[in-house]
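Quick one, tokens below:
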């Protein structure tokens, strides 16, 4: 119930914010054009800071800081950094340099499939390494649900460019809420609105794609956790 109220409020707030922004843009002056450029720079910074690999790393660090299960913290963070951030980003940049991807936002949805598939490969390697270093079951579960979510993302992306940014953000959020408290939803939903605004401002996604990404990532992750904690 709390989640639905937050989502409804967030949707209305973001929609009104975008409506006001569109109204202002319709009366552009030189000053407004400069302001628009500044907004795009801010949006680019936010969008880059919360690319899916970094959201996964931030969630891992937050979990290790908040929980009592901080054994092997350094190797877990290092593995998350190498397999979850560095290797995927380097691969993406290589694809970008070879012009296999149109731009840094991978705005053409058909070009996203190969990076997603390689992302799954890197996550499997990372998960295997985490298991080797005896990472906690909850850390392992985070990587498992990320793999499953990416498989679903590939299927959806064939027909509709749902926001991978929002899936990559809301999935770790669901994992943190599952482990700690529903109260974490409040600051993370606010942060999700900011990230969603950045993706809209950069013309990467529509409002529906942004909200669908958040709800899909959160819902699918939470459902998997409810099922997997009984098995693993």
């Amino acid at each position: 119930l709390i989640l639905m109220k937050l989502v409804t409020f967030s949707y209305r707030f973001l929609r009104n914010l975008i409506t006001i922004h569109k109204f202002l843009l319709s009366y552009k002056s030189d000053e407004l054009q400069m302001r628009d450029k500044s907004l795009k720079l801010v949006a680019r910074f936010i969008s880059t800071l919360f690319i899916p690999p970094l959201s996964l790393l931030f969630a891992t660090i937050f979990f290790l800081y908040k929980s009592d299960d901080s054994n092997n913290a350094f190797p877990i963070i290092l593995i998350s950094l190498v397999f979850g951030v560095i290797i995927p980003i380097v691969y993406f940049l290589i694809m970008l340099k070879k012009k296999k991807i149109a731009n840094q936002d991978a705005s053409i949805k058909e070009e996203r499939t190969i990076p997603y598939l390689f992302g799954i490969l890197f996550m499997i390697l990372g998960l295997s390494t985490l298991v080797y270093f005896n990472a906690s079951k909850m850390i392992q579960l985070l990587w498992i649900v990320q793999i499953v979510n990416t498989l679903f993302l590939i299927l959806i992306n064939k027909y509709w460019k749902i926001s991978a940014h929002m899936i990559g953000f809301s999935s770790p959020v669901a994992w943190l809420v599952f482990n700690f408290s529903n109260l974490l939803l409040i600051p993370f939903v606010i942060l999700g609105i900011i990230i969603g605004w950045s993706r809209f401002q950069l013309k990467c996604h529509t409002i529906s794609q942004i909200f669908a990404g958040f709800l899909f990532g959160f819902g699918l992750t939470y459902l998997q956790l409810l099922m997997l904690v009984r098995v693993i």
